[in-house]
Amino acid sequence: EDHLVESGGGLVQPGRSLRLSCVASGFPFENHAMHWVRQFPGKGLEWVSGLGANRDVAAYADSVKGRFTISRDNAKSSLYLQMNNLRPEDTALYYCGRDRGGLVDTGTIESWGQGTLVAVSS
Amino acid sequence: QSALTQPASVSGSPGQSITISCTGTSSDVGSFSLVSWYQQHPGKAPKLIIFEVTKWPSGPSSRFSGSKSGNTASLTISGLQAEDEADYYCCSYVRGGTYVFGTGTQVTVL
Asked: Residue B88, class by beta-carbon neighbours within 10 Å (0-12 exposed, 13-18 middle, 19+ buried)?
């Protein structure tokens, strides 16, 4: 059974940086695209970023493009999200998710972690 | 990348059927059969219940079903039960290689 554990969240001032991590187990990590999805305090979900299994294709939501960078280490079964120039509107619970396939093209996130909370405030 | 549009809330009595709509554009829902649905109970992570418009992740479910017509996808819950009270989100692949979620629907069992 899939197990995804996020970490790295916390309280940070606007303009600062934060790096989220997600450690995966229970499935062949190197075969699956992975995603970050966030949930705002008002409940809505927003897809943030996705990365193909071979690290070949990275995609971003317009709201984070140029500020966030997704990466992965298949040897460590780990996914990362480097978040720079954080804004108050980035405040959310950040989930790590496993895609159904190896590319960011299925429209399906099959399994989810429990999330790590990011709060951006002065 | 505008969010897909869902009704804010839908309610029904136990045993009834309800349908949640998810309206997108020709760049997402209308062009691809790559719509998924998620159920989220309070304090929990989202859970996949439908993918590729009509498919079930863990074998057939007699109560959750999906469909699509044009730019609108739909989730139907048949035989509504108390445990179905939750938030529901749709998600679609978007031309160009991104994903977009719906605005979310709160289902209340009366």
From this structure: buried
